[in-house]
Amino acid sequence: MDSLFDEAEERAAAEAAPLAVRMRPRTLDEVIGQRHLTAEGTPFRKLIDNDAPMSLLLWGPPGTGKTTLAYVVSQVTSRRFTELSAVTAGVKDVRAAVEAARRELGMSGRQTVLFIDEVHRFSKTQQDALLPAVENRWVSFIGATTENPSFSVVSPLLSRSLLLTLKPLGDDDIGQLIDRALGDDRGLAGRVALEPEAREHLTRLAGGDGRRALTYLEAAALGTTAIDAATLERAVDRAAVRYDRDGDQHYDVISAFIKSIRGSDADAALHYLARMIEAGEDPRFIARRLIVHASEDIGMADPTALATAVAAAHAVEFVGLPEARINLAQAVIHLSLAPKSNAVVKAIGAAQADVRAGLIGAVPAHLRDAHYAGAARLGHGDGYVYPHDLPEGIVAQRYAPDVVTGRTYYEPTSHGMESRFSERSRLIRGILRAEPAGGPGEVAAGEGDGK
Fold it and tell me: Which residues of the chain have pLDDT under 50?
């Protein structure tokens, strides 16, 4: 009688669990995405198939399956599953979990998967407390982190663990996850229909996060048998952004985004940034466009703009959404308010036009490599003047081939910091294009030294 009651209680608890928990895979073949980790022949798969002792660090964005993989490991290998959160657990909790695992191992021979979520939040002391258990294989340790373990996990624990990097789920992965939840008996069991427009919106809202997709689906399914876009919008309090990442909206919005930055309208640029983020646009694509814009439309008017754009791109890779939206917004504001100049893109365009037109002359002999045997006999480096040997650091000597001597590609503007470069560029060209004081046969110190 008690066993029947216990089974009924377990069934009730399972049915009350969140959809994301109910749909958690039970085998590696049920895991959606992360095929680079779960495919046959991969190191992770070999550990599981051979029921080998293990210590793993799972690094990836939220909702990519870190907890799922840890749970599947315990299921497939029939190991106890003990979960701790580094947000709430302390050294005492870690030691208690390890001691329980040691007792279980000693009495029954059954191993324990000790899964620690957000392991990067553990202090050095807390992480060090794990080392004896990992070293002696009292537990199969699996730590999950959204931060780079190289910076957030102590070296002894990192060196004893296999680091596995998880990737955001693609749209096809999210779609497969949604379809499975709609039809599976553990999920909605075919009781709810999801209209195509709502499915597309749900996929965008997920942003590569499987847990988020299932959470939103569960909220939208309450009290209905059919989910349309309006129902989904009300459930998640997020308007459906009409945006096709492979269609006109993609190109129209990114075009308006760049033109708003070029036009120095930070507010409009932020609107289009928000629109792309909410629609699920790849943040790496946005970051790449900012890097191009920093040189194409700002250039030397504010040389720090490129550094800001590159830093934002690194932040996207390092932090990921949603936090990286702040880094992108900072870059957008910087680039929008920066003085503008297209002198850089015009300069390389003019230089390339000459090259394509066939204006490719021989490299002047005094600039050629003079370090190899026989170079001096060919006159390579003969007459070269080493600029550092002169007080002003600039010497009147020819650098360009004869065919393009005197041609000007870079035309600085008077905008922002480029105004400083404008004057310096004029002075340097005045020196470089002047005749050497002693004529072509007389040069300053450093002549022919091959530097």
Answer: 4-7, 10, 240, 247, 437-451
How far CA 114 is from CA of 122, 140, 160, in Å, comes to 15, 6, 15
Secondary structure string (H, E, C) spanning the chain: CHHHHHHHHHHHHHHHCCHHHHCCCCCHHHCCCCHHHHCCCCHHHHHHHCCCCCEEEEECCCCCCHHHHHHHHHHHCCCEEEEEECCCCCHHHHHHHHHHHHHHHHHHCCCEEEEEECHHHCCHHHHHCCHHHHHCCCCEEEEEECCCHHHHCCHHHHHCCEEEECCCCCHHHHHHHHHHHHHCCCCCCCCCEECHHHHHHHHHHHCCCHHHHHHHHHHHHCCCCEECHHHHHHHHCCCCCCCCCCCHHHHHHHHHHHHHHHCCCHHHHHHHHHHHHHCCCCHHHHHHHHHHHHHHHHHHHCCHHHHHHHHHHHHHHHCCCCCHHHHHHHHHHHHHHCCCCCHHHHHHHHHHHHHHCCCCCCCCHHHCCCCCCCCCCCCCCCCCCCHHHCCCCCCCCCCCCHHHCCCCCCCCCCCCCHHHHHHHHHHHHHHHCCCCCCCCCCCCCCCCCCC
pLDDT digits (tens, 9 = 90+) for 258-282: 999 999 899 999 998 988 887 777 8
Q: Which domains are delineated in the chain?
A: 34-165 (3.40.50.300), 171-236 (1.10.8.60), 248-337 (1.20.272.10), 359-432 (1.10.3710.10)
Res 286: pLDDT = 93
- Furthest CA-CA distance within the chain: 111
Burial of 29 (0-12, 13-18, 19+ CB in 10 A): exposed
Give the model confidence (pLDDT) of 353-376 as tens digits.
Answer: 888 888 888 777 777 776 665 656
Buried b (16+ CB within 10 A) or exposed e, 305-320: bbebbebbbebbeebb
- Picking from 179, 170, 375, 180, the residue whose alpha carbon sits closest to that of residue 280 is 170
Q: What is the pLDDT of residue 445?
A: 36
| Other CB atoms within 10 Å distance of the CB of residue 236 | 18
At 150 the pLDDT is: 86
Q: Per the structure block, which two tokens stand in for 300?
A: 């030397």
What pLDDT is recorded for position 167? 87
Distance, in Å, from the CA atom of 212 to the CA atom of 202, rounded to the nearest integer, reads 9
Q: How many residues does the chain have?
A: 451
What pLDDT shows up at residue 311? 95
Return the axis-axis angle of helices 304-318 and 283-293, rounded to nearest 10°. Answer: 170
